[in-house]
Amino acid sequence: MSLLLFDVLLCGLLLALALASVLSRQLSHAVILYIAFGLLMALTWARLAAPDLALAEAAIGAGLTGALCFTALARQGKLAASPTLSWQQRCWPALFVLVTLFGLLLLVLQLPAKPGPLPALVMQQLAASGVSHPVTAVLLNFRSWDTLLELLVLLLALLGTLQVAPAPVYQSSWVLSRSWSQLLAPLIIVLAGYLLWAGAHQPGGAFQAGALLAAGAVVLKLNHQLNWLAWRNIWVRFFAIAGLTVFVAAVLTAWLLSGALAEPVWLRWPPELAKYIILLIEIFATLAIAITLTLLVVAEQPATPLSLARQEDDEAADG
Amino acid sequence: MSVGGELSVISTLLSSALLLTGLLFFIAGSVAMLRFPDSYSRLHAVTKADSLGLGSIIAGLMFYCNWWQNLLMLLIWLLVLASGTVSCQLLARFCKTKQDQA
Amino acid sequence: MVEFSSSLNLFLATAATLVAIGVYGFIVGPEPLRRIVALNIISAGIFMLMVVLAYRSAGPDAVSTLADPVLHALVLTGLVVAVSATAFALALLARLGKTTADRPEEPGP
Amino acid sequence: MMILLLVLPLAAALLMLLWPRIAPLLALFSAAVCSFLALQLLLQVSEQGTRYWLLAGWPSGLAIAWQADTLSCLLILLTAVLQLLVGFYAFATRARDKLSQGFWPLSSLLQLSLTALWLSRDLFNLYVCLELLALVAVALVSLSGRKAIKPALNYLLLSLFGSLCYLLGVVLLYGAYGRLDIAGLVSQWQPNLLTNSALLLMSLGLMLKAALWPLHGWLPAAHAAAPAPVSALLSALVVKGPLFILCLLWLQLASTEQAQAMAPLFAGAGLAALLFGGWSALRTPFAKNLVAYSTVAQLGYATLALGLMLKFDQPLIFAALWLFVLAHALAKAACFLAIGEMSGTLGGKRLTTLKGASQTMPLAMFAFAVAGGSLIGLPPSGGFLAKWALLQGLWLQEQQLFWPLALVLATLLSAAYVFRVVVLAFDRADPVAPDFSPQVLPQWLALLPALAVWAMALFSEPLLLLLRLEAL
To answer: What is one cellular component GO term in this UniProt entry (chain D) (predicted)?
Structure first.
């Protein structure tokens, strides 16, 4: 009974925060409420037996998205109140959404309760996958093609951001916050290493570790540390794509190794090597994710030729 | 962590009292955050009340956990304390500079 | 068992309502930043639906048997995709804000 | 071979990020090799039949499923060849158009994401491919600087909303059947409220992303704001990705009753797109917007064909659908390149800039006119081939007078907007500066796809045979 009470409270809070975030008059309130919403989501994942997601959500969903939204707010300059909408502008969408909601409720409540065939299949094949944590097995072995594409999505977001992002608004750094961020750095590295290592047999893995590292790097960078961490540095670029490179290299190597078979299978890790391959990919993916996420949050104007046209455009505007 | 059944009556009472105190501080801090007039007093309310609230909640939870978990919780509390202090100072400085500029 | 299923229905309904709230925010807006937040709320609703489905497949004693790992992996992928898209959208938005802020200073054509 | 088609563009893109200096070379090289490989694959598949893969060799359901049928192979080939052509164009005009270096890795990634999409037969993997495609497309649009930011943001937000609708549908299906591969879902498919709604949700998202009427609002602004090579890629290829998934859903997953029920909606939306898109193209004062609205109209043909296919279940109409897509891709690439070349050289975005273009830039104008001929459907172009297949398919059904009449009306409209440009171009040219010397190579490159679309008529028999082999 107490658990049910907890659930009701959690769901009520989630809904209230989401609604308040959508309806709030000031944009800054909307963002703050959304960050609180993200933290509660992480709690919800933990409640729903999804610790992997709770870790990822806390780091990515609440932390980084929040930082991103705040950066966007800061860039927008003065915090003006939102334009007020007439009741017609609010009523008709609300009516439409209520109808949609009714339909959705009808749908989700009649989803069958029986589990699909896949969880059993995962458990059955888990031994051959090279890792003992099923989520990692799905991510990096059973459906590794999804993961490769996902790393690509991340890289693409970075490429797009570097193209368009204006120069960041830096506040001057302050001794206390700088030394505190330096103090935190080793702790974060240790924790990220632990998460990465744990991913093979328990919740954790490349994304969580990468996101954590990124959070630490963002704090350091906001305090004018880690000046080498910029896209114009070729080593940074190298490590930003290292996850994908190692992934592709592993795929090709595994494919060549299995060449003895009549029909080589793509993305198939040799069972005896699977463990090491997955670990290797995860290490480099962690680095790549950390660098990419950091650069996404504190995107600086690159001095590389990546966006020559843009800079000329800006100069033309200035002149 | 469901070893609560083995606790003595006094421990249960003590831990409940601590938990309730912590909750009270949290609620007070949140209400102050919403009601107080300017940034400084809000900062003051939030950081102090929340640090104390978290501390007593952790103290209340310590009755239920083993030493390793207790150590971790203490560490978490310390981290929250320190980062709360730093960010409070940062925000206050920011407010001050803005005020001076205006 | 009754408690389990009523909890589940509660979470399912919450997920659906979150999607609806997000859709409302996306339609009504009016600022782009709020639309982006609304999109994130929709995706949170969908992910929640997935996680509840995963939890349900594990049955009432979810502590002993594991929830559907495939769905969890899909949600992880979805989370990363969502944060990437959000970051890009926010970068575009920041650029847009800068462009509109610059405009008054430009000499009119 | 299959693997190289994916690994090559990816590796090329990664190398380009490290060494931006050699980017154009790498992009062109990978596109060229991929074109060759895609041709090999098409020949192999058309001889030996469709190939299936379960990635990494895991049992079906657990693994991501791939399928290379003749249609997929044809689309892969189209993607690679257009990529190569547009790459050459971008290389030839890079000095004048100040095209950012960012174009090269993005174009390679575009090729990769499209190839992955044509192959995939797994609903969630298709979602990831869609997101990848959307991000590449938006990043490409935003290459042209400040004027493109607003359309790009709008495009991204709507596209994300579309993806989320699609994802919700996928989740509902997973909740109902517990699997994601299309083949597995087909075997358990039951028409009920749940599958109906899932299909509708997914279709809504895909229609938004494919800019099918009435969800096309974002397309003209985004496509017109992009640099010319990017517009060509977007119009020719990117909007076809969601359309392909839409066809997969309705032709493979949906049961006959569901398909029958949906048919009039698609056919109606297609017709409305044809009329509305044609009319808007006739009214807009900007050259690139005209071509973009024409994309909306031409997508109407594909939607109409999809609707009619669902209604009559006639293989010829299926062939017509994809002939439309192929012909439109080639013709539209030529149109955008030609228009981009003309407005780049003559300097101006308005349609009136093109006045007298037949004398100042005859080659580019010829390319536009030839491609326009295919858009109208003049024989013996690819557009004509598609329309003829559609009419033939309709002929085989009795009592169908309405649709042929509608097609005639749409053809008249498209003829009107193409001739609007051509008439302007044959007006007397304003005197040009004495040092006026348009580049010749880019104009030839614009002409190439236009000629290819007319050459489709030469290969009409094998093309029809390839596309009729299997209804997906």
So the answer is: plasma membrane
